[in-house]
Every structure is written in structure tokens, then in C-alpha cells.
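Pasting two entries for a bug report.
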Amino acid sequence: MKILATFVITLFSILSLTSQKEFKKGYIQYKEGDQRFGYIKEFNCDAEKIIFRTGLEKDKEKIKSSDLEEICLIVESDTFYFRKHEIVRYNGKKTKFKTYFKSAWASPVFISDEIEGFYYNFKAQQSVALTTPSGFIGFIPFSRSKAAYGIRFPEDFEIIDISMRRGRSKLNKKKFRKRLKEYLDHHCKSFESISIDKINELQTFDDFLGKYSEVCR
């Protein structure tokens, strides 16, 4: 009986620690501007409700995503910001788009006056992508292969999903570089003049968008 009691206590402790690990320190910001600091449970990019608590031992609160403007997560030394956007799919025909998510949490990784870059998880019902200004970090808790690239021009609300499917959306893939360049060429003739060899020298997604911002000012 004593062994059983010890096992139950140990199991409860493990489950409690696992549950706590699902929560990340950060804040939620309401549309009215009010911020609440505490702990946020891992959430999907299309989550309708966000689970929040003011402390790890405090009661959970369910908050409607539609009431929130921003979510911030702090993971070790990195800070991740998420805002909701409509996401549309680019199909390679320059002006043909299809709504992918009417509202999804996406994380900005590059911001300039000319263009903005985002990562998000393109598969519904799975956790958001964690990114920093220097690039992709990982998912909470899913794998790198599900990352999607998105771009947005400052005058637009929606994010344009520029990714290719089946794990080919990496900047070291020539087809993806070509796809991204062809779309941006349509928006900036100066960028169109850059050779694909020069484009292939760029190492990261934000390098790519940085070059676009430099050339298209």
C-alpha cells in the first residue's frame, strides 16, 4: 500500500510538471490595449480560445482569441510576438489568391517600410511557430518541417503565404527562391533586375526581405 501511495504521488508530480511545461511566461494584450502578464498555454495558430493563468498555481482562464490583439511568449532568452491576420495562398500566378485562414496567429520576423515577413504553422490544429528576428527557432512543440513563410506589404491586412508544400519551403531550395523572387519581381521592378545568382547568395528569409527593402525603397 505504501509503494502504491508513493507511485501515485510520483505520477501526480510528473503530470503536474508536464502540465506546467505547457505554459510559457508572457502576456496577452486585449484589443482595448490592456495587458495582463502571466502564463499562456501552448496554442494553435487558429485557436479560438487562449488558456491563461496569472501564476503557475493559479486557476486557468479561457479567453476568446477574438478579444485579443497580441500574445507575447518568453522562452528562455527569446521573446515571441503573435498577432492575428488573414492568410491567403499564393498559387504561382502573381495575382491569384485563395483564403487559407480567415484569422491565424502569426509571428513577425522581419519588418520594414517596404515589406514584412512572418512565420506561422500552416496546418490547422497544431501549435504556432516560434521565431526570432534572426530566423526560425521551432514549434511549440511541433517540428520544423511544418513552418510556412508569409509576406505582407504594409498597406495590406492579409499575409500572403508564399510557401511550397511537402517540406520544400526552405531558402536553400532553388525552386522556392525562384518562386519568392518571381512574386516580389511583380511588385518591384528594381528587384527584378537582380540576378538569380545574387539571390542564391542570401542565407536566410530575413536576408531575402532585407535585400528587397534595400533595393525597393
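Entry 2 (this is the one that rendered wrong in the viewer):
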Amino acid sequence: MTNDEINVVPMGCNCFPRVSAVALGLKPRKNQGELSYPFDLGIWPIPMVRFLIENDFEGMTDPANLFVRPDPFGQPILCDKRFPSCSYNHEMPPATDIDFVGDNYARFVERYNRRIQNFRTTLAGKKRVLLYMTATNLLPPPYNPFAYEDFHAIVQTLKTRYPNTQFRLLVVIERLQFSIPDSWNNEIYTINIPVIGPYTLCFPYIQAVLGIRCVFQSIFSSYS
């Protein structure tokens, strides 16, 4: 099984899956023709990802669900009212000069409707899809903003919706570790990577990418 026979689709909860998949040569860059998907660049809590998958992206591009709030540094952040901890930070300054808020969020609606359609088309048209997500736990047990059941529900929903596609899910659990142990059942692979500090910093980023390099080959070999 070669990498180009498997489509890697980022699933949040931050930008790391898209960025690291490109760094490892598992996805082309956008300027090489690679499609963009709904969970490529931004911050989405795992319950939001699960809700949007189970409800086929219901309300994601409804202007009534969008609002702008200040981040801890006073910068404006575009969010979803239903999940206010999410952040479409690549649709706001300083990441972009494009106005995604004006005209009742028209540019946002256009961009994310296109990304949702890309997601649906890819999952319906590819035989093998690797869903790739991070899960960030910033607080110690017993508090946990996600559970293994969330990962299982995402996979089962997509298997039902796209019965001709083989799915695998890789979950990289970062920050505070081992609230969910490492496991692999030939469908869902969870691995704890001890990233200390923001993954956008050079050393933690390289550390995390190198830590998951060998995981992909194990997953690729599980497809029939």
C-alpha cells in the first residue's frame, strides 16, 4: 500500500494534523493542488468536531451561529456561538487581510461551504481515508474535554454515511498525557506525544512530527 492510495483528511482539533501531514510528505501543499477541508486550520473542541460530523456540518456556515469575541490578548476571534471556545483564527487578522466578517460573513460562508463539499466528495470518492486529529488536554484528570467514545462515534458515523470507504482514525493526544492510553485496534490509533509548549515553536513541533512518523506506516499497512 502506497501513501498516494490513501487520502489523509485533517479533523482538528487544531492545525497540527494538516501542518504535520504536509511536513511528512503525506499531503501535497495547497499550491500543489491539494483540497482544503473544514478542519484544516483553526481550533475546534472535540465535542464540536463530533457534533458537526454526526449532524453533517449542520449550522457550521449559518451566520446566525457566528460571532466575534476577543481572545486573551484582546485580538478579535471568529467563533461559533454553540461552541465558543472554538477559533477560526485563520479567518481573522493578523492571519489574513481578507474580511470574513463583513456582509454577514459572506466570505466565510463561501469558503467553508466549499471545504465541506470537498470533504463530502473526498470521503465518498476515495476507497481509503485516514482521518487525522489531535486532542489537547490542558487540565489534569479527572477533567477531560474529550473521551474515547468521541473518536469511536466520529468513525462510526462516517462509516455509516460512506459505506464504500475504509476509514482509519489517528488521534495524537498532546499536552498533559495519558488521560486516554495509547491503543490500536486496526481502526482507531491513539498515541500520546509529550509536547511541551505551543506546537508552533520549532523544537516541540519537530519533536511531535518525528514522534508520529512511524505510526503512519502501521496504519497504512492495516488497509486491505
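Dev reply: Rendering is fixed now. As a check, the viewer should reflect this: Strands lie at 7-10, 66-70, 76-80, 128-137, 166-175, 183-184, 188-192.
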